[in-house]
Amino acid sequence: MPRWVRGGLDFVFPPLCLGCGDFTEDEDAVCESCRRTMATFNRPFCLNCLAFLPAAGSCASCGESSRPLFAGANYVAPVEDIIIQFKFKNIATPARFFAKLIRDQFAEDILRLEADVLVPVPLYYSRESFRGYNQATVFAERVAELLSLRVETGIIVRTKRRRPQSRLNHAQRVTNIRGVFEVTAQADAGRKVILVDDVVTSGSTVREAGRTLERAGYTLAGVISMAHAV
Ligand SMILES: [Zn+2]
Ligand SMILES: [Zn+2]
What we know:
This protein has two domains: 1-37, no CATH class; 39-228, Rossmann fold. 36% of the residues lie in helices and 17% in strands. It contains eight helices and seven strands, in the order ααββααβααβαββαβ. It has a five-stranded mixed beta sheet. A two-stranded antiparallel sheet has the order 4-5. The termini are far apart.
């Protein structure tokens, strides 16, 4: 785009920080001050018990059954505000911002898992067609671009409509999510999958999706999310 056009657009739509709404020239629309206040994670969590994983080896309490959860940042302000922007028109910029956080913090750890494919956690179809997109897919595509991985949608689908997990307590979340996913094709030769979601809170959704994939012969290598509420 020619500079004068871009300049004109900036005048009509001044670039505002997705976190605080202040003017910013940051290419991912997150200002210096929001970046400073944001709590990012430099270690993955254990997907089972949500404790930090040690720098080497597996979770002290879960042992070999632990899988890593790579989360960009803690789900509080300004991260919450940036993710809320997905509900408005600007969906590409927050996805790119969190994909870069994941790349900068965890690229090596993720590539070491040697996963065949990134699989976004699906929405119920009517919810996706209402929104027009699944934000986990938009995010997965940005991560895949930066890490030279592949995204595949459609391996796993959400066949039942349930209450939104965000309105439930921990115990309710576990029963509410049980049995909502179905795999459309059995895995050929145990393909290794990394699940991708927008926000992981109790982890019950990604664990249920992971269990469903494993029952169909896939191997769950780990989970990537934009944010995790600790
Ligand atoms: Zn800001
Ligand atoms: Zn653990």
